[in-house]
Fold this protein.
Amino acid sequence: MAHYSTSKVASGDAGISSHSLRYCLSRLTMLMLVFGLGLPSAYGIEKIYLDSTDLNILVDENRLFHMIQIGESKVAIKLTTQVQHPDIVQFPSPTIDIPGTINPNDTAQITHDIWAYGKSPGHSEVTFNATPDGAIDLSTVFMRITVMHSQVISVISYIMGWIYFAAWSVSFYPQIYINYKRKSVVGLNFDFLALNIMGFTMYSLFNCGLYFSPEIQSEYLNRHPRSVNPVQLNDVFFSLHAAFATLVTITQCCIYERESQRVSMTGRCILSAFLVVVLVAVGLGAGGELAWLDFLYICSYIKLCITLIKYVPQAYMNYKRKSTVGWSIGNIFLDFVGGFLSILQMTLNAYNYNDWISFFGDATKFGLGLFSLVFDIFFILQHYVFYREGREFIIVDSSDEGSNMTSSGEGREYFMVNFWNGDEKKYDLDVKA
């Protein structure tokens, strides 16, 4: 008897536990379907969304936007705005009341007017909460609001962005042209070219991956749910165009006179180290140990490292030769214009949006821009101040017997002759009349 009673009780406990488990699972499944998946069966609302997720307004300006509701609700729902920075943006009417309907129309479209007021310059996110809790899924309903001092400054900043984009894009062609005109690449450092093609290849991978790959875009949005894709079409164009222009220059190095120039051993070691990092990252990505988004981040870090060091070989070569002949100063001027306008745009945006934290906090962008400007100024000094004696003018008297030169009215013509390290190497004879 004792044994029988113990078995019966144990069996009963097991039955109750099994029944409770099935009951809990069924309730959990129903709750997930109703609330977690946002199905309209509980309240009748199919969807709620905003007509815009980005809003730009001026200080002391009221701006209207709309919330669109698809389907009527079975019960009354109150939506409340949640402002990230109330000192930047405010809502005169922070709540929206959605009335309940006995027989809700699932296809009805209802528009709610919402007014936003810009109190001070800056950026703020706005989300919404629903009462009762779980009445509707609002996880994708949000807005990024930017309050600015001046619309004019915003337009000027936009124009500057396109100007420096054009300047940087065109900056590759003066070097290509001078190589073609001289039929020589003597004076152009090959380490600079090798680092450049590696850097722009990495930059192109980063931009194309984030812009064209749905899988990588999904990874990015999962990590930053309310962010926009940081890569735009002009970024893709610039990186691919820069890689192409650099390849054209490298092709010129293969067909034009280059004397004994080649990529140095130091340059090869640096490039090999970067290549090893890329190959290891690719292997980890293919094996599922590294997310492809992180692989793209590694590519971008390599590009940043290359930007920091790529000008050093050319500057050192100019110093050793005591000449800038063969190195296009037009490239430097355009790069300087692009870098200067880029930093000026950052300054204007920081003032317009009162966002100096981002200005100084983005050390990478600001530091690289400033670093490039410093090198541009150094190259300009090399060209026009330090090594001016590397470009001398001599006077040829074309009236001398045996001369085939055509003479000017005074019988003299001016030619530019380049002297490297005190010795005559190769002459670029340009008539100065």
User: Anything to note?
Assistant: The radius of gyration is 33 Å. Residues 1-18, 29-41, 392-433 have pLDDT under 50 and may be disordered. Residues 256 and 277 are 33 Å apart (CA to CA). The longest helix spans residues 2-36.
